[in-house]
Every structure is written in C-alpha cells, then in structure tokens.
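Changelog note: in this version the structure field was regenerated for every chain. One regenerated record is shown below for reference.
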Amino acid sequence: MRKILAALYSVVVYVLFLGVFLYAIGFVENLLVPKSIDSGPSGPLAGTLLTDTALLLLFAVQHSIMARPGFKRAWTRIVPEEIERSTFVLFASLALALLCWQWRALPQTVWNIDESVAQTALLVVSWSGWALLLISTFLISHFQLFGLTQGFARLLGREVPDTGFATPFLYRWLRHPLYTGFILAFWAAPHMSLGHLYFAVATTGYILVGIWFEERDLIAHFGDRYVQYRATVGMLVPKIRLNATRKGIAH
C-alpha cells in the first residue's frame, strides 16, 4: 500500500505542478489567465512593493532551504525518501500559486515597443526561454527532477538512478541553461510594466544567489570535476574562447 500511495502522491503533485507552472507562464506573458502580472488589484507603491517582496521572499526561502542537502537529510527522517522530491515540488508549487494569486500589479509602463518586427523578436526570445527551460529539464531527467521517478521506484522494483556528473547537449556550453531560460522569458517583454520589471530584477537576483548555493553543493559533491567544468563552461551564457596566437610583424 505504501508503494502505491507514494506513486499516486507523486502523480498528483506532478499534475498540480504542471497546472501551476502553465498558469505561471500565462501570468508572466499576460496571456490566457484571469490574473496576470499586470492585472488585478494595485494600491499605494509602498504597500504593493511590500506585498510583492514578501511573496517573492517566501518562494525564494522555501526553494533554497528545501533544496539544500543538509535539509534533505533531516527532512527524510520525517518524510519517506521516495516522496521527498515530490514534497519539495508540492511546497514550491504552492508558493508559486500563492505568488500568482496575491501579486499586486504595478501597471506603470517602463517601456513599450510598438514596432511589429521588434515586438515579434522579443516574443520569440521570451518563448524560446520557456522552450530552453523545458528542454533543460529533460536533459537532466525531467521525471526525476519532479519526483515521479522516485515515487514509482519501489512500486516498479527499481532503484532510483544515481545522478552522476554529466554534461548532455546544452550543458556542454552552459552550466545552467534552465536558469538562462527563465531570464530570457522574464526579460524579453515588448511591454514592460514597473511590476514586471521588479519581478524580473528580483527573480534574476534570486537566480544568481541560487546558483552560488547550488554550485557550492556541486563542488562539495563532485570536487575537482565540477571545479574544472565551472572554469571552462559559461554560467548563463557560453564562454567565448579566443585561441589567438601572436605573430611577429615584419617591418
């Protein structure tokens, strides 16, 4: 029964995550959702910024703390190991849903691009960011990342694959293509409101802090292999290697 419940739990959490994440895409893109980043209630600047900052901090703190190896070791004394990842995804999804629900808009325009070609180009970049994000999750095992592999492992009589050090496809040029996808999606907006700009700045800052913590854990786990990888592969943009050789000039 425990095996069946763990598998069912992982499926329910994954479906919840998928629904919240799809809504979040519409929220950022101001598309097909009842309440987006630029719609809904707004109020005095100070109160709005306080509310939005609290929502962003809640998501950031939850995500950062529950992702740390030390927390996971302590957490699995309470929560069965096979549903630990799904529980992390559940809490992250609830924090994201709360952010989308309670976000206070700051609709003042920072920039607005009316020219059709430039507008289309920015939309292509933004949607390419979402695509890059999705592709990156499958490169590092999408179903294990979101807890389904762990939830079904015991039911199917399988071991959870060891997440060894690997650099598939995009990871040969970027250490964090998933985060690059987020940044592209958040910043490439033909219409940028003050609220959207604050969201983009805050989330980009959180991504940079999160990368610092994540890479510290990766170095602790993989040692010199990751140190060498970090030295040769770009974090969010590919590194340009110039192998120019100086040649003497005859006068």
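Spot check on this record: The first helix runs from residue 2 to 29. DSSP finds ten helices and two strands in the chain.
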